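Ticket #4471: structure export looks truncated?
Reporter: QA, pipeline team
Priority: medium

Steps to reproduce: submit the single chain below to the structure queue and open the exported record.
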Amino acid sequence: MNKTSVSPLRWIPSLYFAMGLPFVVLNMVAAVMYKDLGVSDAQIAFWTSLIMWPWTIKFLWSPFLELFGSKKLFVVSTQLLSGVLFGVAAMALHLPSFFAITIALFALVAFSGATHDIAADGVYMSELSTSDQAKYIGWQGAFYNLAKLVATGGLVWLAGWLFERFAASGRAPIAASQSSWTVVLLILAGIMAAAGLWHVRSLPTGGSAASGGRTLADGLQGLREVIVSFFAKKHIRYYIAFIILYRLGEGFVMKIVPLFLKTPLAEGGLGLTNQQIGLYYGTFGAGAFLLGSLLAGYYIAGRGLRRTLFTLVCVFNLPFAVYALLAWFQPSSMWIVGGGIVLEYFGYGFGFVGLTLFMMQQVAPGKHQMAHYAFASGIMNLSVMVTGMASGYLSDLLGYRIFFVAVLLATVPAFVMTRLVPFTYDEQTKTK
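Actual output as written to the record:
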């Protein structure tokens, strides 16, 4: 039974949409933006991966969130802060040193977003029972990744549409790109601010700050306790390996796919425009992804995570073969490219929720549930960040064809580890 009388569907979709948006913009949309503004592929992949570091180390400050205010307070304040930072970045695009300035601002958005994620996941785990966590995990995953489709689909399409209008008015290509992306970043600022205002009313508290006059020293001691107790968990070595390997292939392709789609045919890419990329993601990909996410939630709820985990990892990783085929054959047909994206996004939506639920139900349970989930998701993002930082150099070295084949080989350990990983907790009980 839910601890709150407020329906979870009143806040879970908007909460996880707001969680996903900054992450996706920094991780993927920024790559398209910088490509339009003339930044090299290697620089784009390296710096847009490096600024994701806060999502890796967020466990370091997660114990301190227990000392000040409610989880809801941190959710609302970080959403509003991210909105302000996106607005400032929009203005900075017109400065001579726009790349350095916007990267710095995006790094601040990353810290804000990582803090938001800790508190948001804390609300989810605190307010829902184990059975409801499984029941609503599909909604959580669907709207988290709906942000990916809105950003990489709708906003990228809008940037391309605006570029054509600004270019038609006589502006130089770079100036037209700057103006179009300024509008996009301002829209992002408005969405994040609106999310903060909505959650003032709709979000449950997720629990109040720890009582008893705890101090900063207590927080440091708490951090030590969090780290020691995390590595003392039963089967933790298997869990860390599983978390790293599950998204290893995705980490390599995440930065490169939008660059591959935009690169001219003569250079090994598909030569798509921003509008085409937005169309493929926002139409073909959107329905497939949402369907996959929702089906996965009910599939897991009906059969249990233990029985479904290998299926989930297969569905998640096998569709990366799509990009290898697209790189080798470079099809021009909208239906072939769109069909490939449908397959990849359905697999992503269906498989991603498996890792999320595994971390919630097998890694996080215990005294420091919120902090340990943050620790686990930080390890997950470290895998994605490190592979993303290297991906630009590897794709330049190998070329897109060989690079995507190498990515398929990198997914093999995930299948093996899924067969080996043990379960500690009964899926029918919620351990705290």
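Status: closed, not a bug. The export was complete when the record was re-opened. Leaving a note from the reviewer for reference: The domain at 8-206+214-420 is CATH 1.20.1250.20 (Growth Hormone; Chain: A;).
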